[in-house]
Specification:
This protein is of the alpha+beta class and about 325 residues long. Helices cover about 30% and strands about 25% of the residues. About 50% of the residues are buried.
Length: about 325
């Protein structure tokens, strides 16, 4: 088992930020509880769970915390908002900074930034803003399509559309979450995801996790219900393809300016990885992908938490 160096005084007061005001609040509570328990086992007895609400700035100021461990997911926690609050309060925090968090939370702007790297492949898509003509903007896309809120996680508001007649209904569903919607061509392949972490300032990829959902696609139910997905780690890829996917993940991480921790999702077709999105605050629940990926390279949950904690203050 890999041992991760501790960079911090065990008496440090650490706020484990979880809950929040997004549709992923319940998942975040589970992530936060897992990270808090790990910090306690690691000897950080002054760590505390801090449930994020609209009084979070006051809670953090009054708490006089040395560091913040970000276990938030979704809006306000993964989009640069909480990162901005922490910057103002001068509390070092884990994971990505304001800019990369904001970019990667928005699937369209993630694609625009990553398009500056010609080696990264992505599905053809259309970006629909409120008031746009849905059918004009998608006229050159080939069905099936995936309709996604542009800034949402855990597959909330996502729909697979097989024919044009169902597009408007899927679009209206996505609008419940965001005014902006991303519509992508469906890639008929299989889903893989790879974590990217940092050690001593150098990014490295975890083992690749291949996910075979028992539902039609990897939706919220498949992600968070035990037994509804089959996980293969390391993924059933050749050595050369494995290395290429890992290189692509690190390249995406660096191109988007990420720090500390992220998880990069791909669809594989004909041994080619098509990047779907970058998650800058990956789930840390018992069924989450990142802990499984780390475990496959002999980094257990507690050491993963220590590794992420080590990124606090490095996200400028």
């Amino acid at each position: 088992m890999q041992k991760i160096e501790n960079r911090f005084d065990k008496n440090s007061k650490i706020a484990v930020l979880c809950g929040g005001m997004s549709s992923e609040a319940e998942v975040s509570m589970r992530s936060g509880k897992g990270c808090f328990d790990a910090l306690q086992r690691l000897g950080y007895k002054n760590s505390e769970i801090v449930v994020v609400d609209d009084n979070i700035a006051l809670k953090l100021k009054e708490g006089r915390y040395d560091y913040a461990f970000n276990a938030l997911h979704g809006k306000y926690g993964e989009d640069g908002c909480i990162q901005g609050v922490l910057e103002i309060l001068k509390i070092p925090y884990t994971g990505c900074g304001v800019m990369s968090s904001a970019i990667c939370m928005n699937k369209e702007y993630t694609k625009r930034i990553l398009s500056t790297n010609p080696n990264i492949k992505m599905a053809k898509s259309a970006f629909i803003r409120k008031g746009d003509n849905l059918y004009e903007k998608t006229s050159d896309l080939i069905y099936p399509l995936f309709v996604k809120p542009v800034s949402e996680g855990s597959s909330f508001g996502m729909t697979k559309v097989d024919k044009k007649e169902d597009l408007e209904t899927a679009y209206i569903n996505a609008l419940k979450y965001n005014d902006d919607v991303l519509i992508e061509e469906f890639i008929d392949g299989f889903f893989v995801t790879v974590g990217v972490l940092e050690r001593d300032g150098k990014a490295f990829a975890t083992e690749i996790l291949e996910i075979r959902p028992k539902t039609e696609w990897y939706d919220f139910e498949a992600k968070y219900t035990s037994g509804l997905s089959e996980f293969i780690c390391p993924a059933s890829l050749s050595e050369s393809v494995t290395n290429f996917v890992k290189e692509q993940a690190v390249a995406a991480f660096e191109t988007a300016g990420c720090k500390g921790v992220s998880r990069i999702d791909f669809m594989m077709k004909d041994d080619v990885p098509y990047l779907l999105e970058i998650n800058t605050s990956p789930g840390m629940t018992a069924t989450s992908d990142l802990p499984a990926q780390a475990a496959a390279m002999n980094i257990n949950y507690d050491n993963l938490v220590q590794l992420i904690l080590n990124s606090a203050g490095l996200n400028k």
